[in-house]
Request: fold
Amino acid sequence: MIGTDLNTAITFLEDGNLVAIPTETVYGLAANAFNEEAVLKIYKTKNRPQFNPLIIHSNSFEKFDEWGIYLPADAQKLAEQLSPGPITYVVPTSPKVPLLVTAGQPSVAIRVPGHPLTLDLLSRIEFPLAAPSANPSMYVSPTSARHVQEQLGEQIPYILDGGECLVGLESTIVSFTDAEPKILRYGGTPVEAIETILGKKIQVLNTDDSKPLAPGMMERHYSPTHKVLLGSISGHLREHNPERCAVISFSKTYKQIPPQHLFILSADEDLDEAARNLFSALRQADLLDVDYILADMVPNEGLGYAINDRLKRASAQPS
Ligand code: TXA
Ligand code: MG
Reply:
């Protein structure tokens, strides 16, 4: 069922059931983080390996404090300016958080999402919500209630509809478990914003060749069913039958392919707009009867790092 009724959503959550929730980044598949049986339903429904830990969400850091989860000084500085918003803090966990949520790690990922409906929901419950993106494990994340409905609708009692996600990419994950903060995943908060607030360079571990530090940082991820070819679109169109290609382009038009196969992320080359459109374009392209999805990279600045990261993962071959 899809709807906008918070009371219905709260009842399902309090009874240990799953509810898909809107956030500014992507839709989440939420359960009471303190209820292990409910959390287990998340892993089962997504077909997610249990070694991949979950982010827990609440509406305020005071609540996290009450649960024994504290922000180190640098994280506090960021939280003052960037939360609620598309940023997740990995900090020492608390005995209150089930091991199933953290995959047994000594740390827990926490986030205050910037979506009014979900903030309202979170303010009315006494527990945090564990919520990964509401897609089957490895597939592209959902940025609308309809995306969730199409893939997991049968298995989720309630989808809270908060419209289309305004950011469209998952949160940036910053770890505070070592002496210096580190970026574990590029996302909706540009690294530059984090560095400006902290007044220092931050190491980024989100590289393609590093071993996954966060177990979820597997190389192949966000993958459509069709093969994604990255790089020069014109070049690929010379090598493959254009009729059998879909194109996800940053801003350019390609006359060689059928018009309904073309997805332009931002005609104005606006990276925020491109981020907002990326996952929806990947999903729509994947529904076409084509052999390949061609995509080009965007400039490495602002949200461009996160867009390129998701494109690279979408194009990675199963290992
Ligand atoms: O924007 C988002 O972050 C969305 C919305 C729903 O909040 N959530 C999301 O969750 O993207 P998910 O599960 O798809 O990605 C969470 C990532 C995974 O890569 C996981 O490995 C990592 O966070 N993670 C969770 N807990 C961690 C921890 N304690 N240490 C390191 N990485 C952790
Ligand atoms: Mg995910």
In short: The chain is about 30% helix and 15% strand. The longest strand covers residues 87-92.
